[in-house]
């Protein structure tokens, strides 16, 4: 292919350089030449339904679609003349046939493509009509659909299919009576918020936002989503100190349901409690340990690290520490302190292996990129997990089920199956030669024929991704697993992404010198302790929630991105305590430029951080971490004898839109916290649907209603933690546990 070869094109009389393989529209946009569109959406494949993007090319008869036609070397292109204007004007007349004149009450008014282009092409009168039809508004849960306003651009369908992968929206063809249908209404997918975001008119809107505010009344405050660790771009849209909705740069970026609807968790009505503040300062002075949850910004993490150096307490953040140790072991193979993979490379992959994560629930943004690879490149997706997930069955081409606890053995089998031909160091080859494949296959329950099928499916392909998840980080053999998986990046060219636990776990793991065990009196930041600082408003001293702070977080794409204050906060902040203890910064963001450069951060002031996308979608948000060299020690240990998990097991896993006590607080994300298991699990535990039981994990006591999910299989039940308040952060050990329970009163 000639893709990437330099070409020269002439657009509207001016010469431009570009590369072969790009469409005329792409080249026009990268040179800031305006071509009107209605159905085009940069982040999906060209739709070609609106014809607004027509252009003329010298030597080609008729008008062509610039969104689909690839430019050729020497092409002479015209994007605007009288004929093109009249063609586009005629298209707009068709769009406006019987379109209800509801602009005064339509939620899209002020930001409506149809409204804007009706004025752009001077449609002052409509000289023809079509027979009107009865098209009632439909309530689909998180979003509502008004078919009378729909212009059938298909953007929502494409997003539902190509991006989020819920595949809920379809086109019902019927000429002028064509409409969009929701084939999965019973699911009430919050991911349909992404489909509503791209709607150019008022056909798809957030149900709870309808008729509450006009677009021009709302102030857009740029920020980053703090929930899953994706750090996705977002805007809080605010009026009178209230967040009305969350939006995003939908042309280029995505938001999951939690990011779009989980915004009302601010710690409101707080004033400065001087007595509680004095006690907090004293608690830090006496603390043997400070505990940090993942709901902590980079700057706050640095503040606590500096206080540790000054006061000498231990610093404990369980999930971040597990991830830190995993990545330290990973780096001992690759020689770099962070993984090399990116989300974009996942979306461009021809094959993706997911190992150690219920990815649809753990990190939706990563799942979206896997779905893109599946839809755009027909990528093979191998999903390796003890539990099948019905929500991603539409993209999984091979499900490999392994036994709980056997992840080290699975990692060893993967290396043996897929790296046999790689140019490996002698020590690694000796390790692989010594593997007892038959034993490992029997103990992990991963058949040799399954691995052969996986290896065969990757032959003659290139562009592989390996997605690694939170099941592995707190595994008893996590560091050995990390080394085995790092071999894929170092010696096989895999795009490896080690998805951090929810929140800002990656930032904490890079900034803080974390300890394994707590000792002495404790202070907790959004985690229960002897003295608790809480953004939920239930601790000993109030703290601001993430949507009430300026600061940065570190994303799964290894990007340091800014957050801005969406709502006011009247209480003390961590920086006030730090200043009382001898540090000196006027504001928390004074620490942004002090983030450790030796860990890949840059000495850039907060106010100097960029936060935008350019006209072709290149991301200019914050900056990318720089990979730093670390010492290499490519020594692998013998695989330990695998521990069996007989009987019933619970798996710590939240529903798709829930990540913490803060998403649990959000009124638009209503999820029931129940222990969810299969009929087989019910038989093994002698439980009935509706029984209530009690059990303990990592010192946290659970009182759960048991529900049977007929789509599930096996003897592993899903146990959420999002409803456990600050205590949820304590549940951070290996995610699978044997279930030892007692019955509670029903």
């Amino acid at each position: 292919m000639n893709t990437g070869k330099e070409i020269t094109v002439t657009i509207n009389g001016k010469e431009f350089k570009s590369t072969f393989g790009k469409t005329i529209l792409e080249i026009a946009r990268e040179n800031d030449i305006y071509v009107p569109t209605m159905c085009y959406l940069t982040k999906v494949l060209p739709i070609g339904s609106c014809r607004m993007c027509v252009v003329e090319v010298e030597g080609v008869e008729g008008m062509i679609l610039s969104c689909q036609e690839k430019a050729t070397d020497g092409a002479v292109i015209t994007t605007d003349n009288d004929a093109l204007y009249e063609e586009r004007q005629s298209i707009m007349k068709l769009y406006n046939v019987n379109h209800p004149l509801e602009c005064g009450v339509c939620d899209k008014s002020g930001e409506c493509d149809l409204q804007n282009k009706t004025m752009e092409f001077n449609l002052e009168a409509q000289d023809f009509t079509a027979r009107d039809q009865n098209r009632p508004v439909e309530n689909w849960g998180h979003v509502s659909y008004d078919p009378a306003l729909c212009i059938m651009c298909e953007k929502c369908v494409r997003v539902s299919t190509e991006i989020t992968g819920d595949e809920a929206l379809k086109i019902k063809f019927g000429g002028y009576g064509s409409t969009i249908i929701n084939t999965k209404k019973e699911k009430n997918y919050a991911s349909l918020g992404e489909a509503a975001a791209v709607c150019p008119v008022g056909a798809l809107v957030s149900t709870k936002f309808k008729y509450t505010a006009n677009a021009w009344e709302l102030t857009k405050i740029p920020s980053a989503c703090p929930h899953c660790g994706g750090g996705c771009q977002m805007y809080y849209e605010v009026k009178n100190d209230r967040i009305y909705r969350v939006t995003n740069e939908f042309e280029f970026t995505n938001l999951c349901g939690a990011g779009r609807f989980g915004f009302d968790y601010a710690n409101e009505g707080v004033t400065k409690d001087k007595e509680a503040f004095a006690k907090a300062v004293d608690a830090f002075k006496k603390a043997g340990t400070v505990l940090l949850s993942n709901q902590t910004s980079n700057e706050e993490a640095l503040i606590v690290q500096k206080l540790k150096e000054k006061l000498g307490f231990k610093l404990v953040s369980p999930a971040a520490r597990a991830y830190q140790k995993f990545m330290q072991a990973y780096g001992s193979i690759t020689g770099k302190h962070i993984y090399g993979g990116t989300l974009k490379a996942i979306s461009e992959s021809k094959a993706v292996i997911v190992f150690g994560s219920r990815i649809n629930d753990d990190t939706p943004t990563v799942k979206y990129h896997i779905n893109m690879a599946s839809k755009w490149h027909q990528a093979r997706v191998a999903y390796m997990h003890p539990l099948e997930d019905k929500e991603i069955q539409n993209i999984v081409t091979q499900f490999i089920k392994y036994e709980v606890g056997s992840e080290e053995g699975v990692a060893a089998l993967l290396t043996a199956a897929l790296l046999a031909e790689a140019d490996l160091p002698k020590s690694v080859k000796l390790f692989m030669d010594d593997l007892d494949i038959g034993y490992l296959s029997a103990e992990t329950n991963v058949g040799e024929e399954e691995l052969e099928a996986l290896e065969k499916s990757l032959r003659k392909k290139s562009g592989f991704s390996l997605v690694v998840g939170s099941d592995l980080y707190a595994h008893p053999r996590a560091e050995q697993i990390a080394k085995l998986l790092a071999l894929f990046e170092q010696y096989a060219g895999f795009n490896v992404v080690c998805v951090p636990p929810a929140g800002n776990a990656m930032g904490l793991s890079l900034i803080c010198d974390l300890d394994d065990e707590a000792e002495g009196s404790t202070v907790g930041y959004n985690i229960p302790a002897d003295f608790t600082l809480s953004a939920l408003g239930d601790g000993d001293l109030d703290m601001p929630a993430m949507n009430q702070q300026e600061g940065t977080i570190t994303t799964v794409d290894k990007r340091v991105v800014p957050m801005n204050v969406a709502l006011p906060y009247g209480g003390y902040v961590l920086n006030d305590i730090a200043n009382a203890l001898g540090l000196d910064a006027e504001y928390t963001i004074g620490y942004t430029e002090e983030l450790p450069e030796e860990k890949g951060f840059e000495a850039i002031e907060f106010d100097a951080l960029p936060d935008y996308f350019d006209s072709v979608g290149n991301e200019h948000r914050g900056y990318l971490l720089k990979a730093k060299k670390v010492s290499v020690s490519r020594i692998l240990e013998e695989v330990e004898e695998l521990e069996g998990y007989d009987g019933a097991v619970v798996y710590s896993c939240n529903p798709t839109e829930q990540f913490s006590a803060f998403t649990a607080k959000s009124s638009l994300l209503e999820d029931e916290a129940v222990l969810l298991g299969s009929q087989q699990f019910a038989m093994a535990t002698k439980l009935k649907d509706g029984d209530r039981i009690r059990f303990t994990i990592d010192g946290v006591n659970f009182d759960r209603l048991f529900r049977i999910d007929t789509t599930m299989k096996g003897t592993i039940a899903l146990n959420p933690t999002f409803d456990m308040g600050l205590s949820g952060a304590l549940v951070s050990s290996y995610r699978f546990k044997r279930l030892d329970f007692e019955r509670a009163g029903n």
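The chain is about 25% helix and 20% strand. Residues 318-334 form the longest helix (17 residues).
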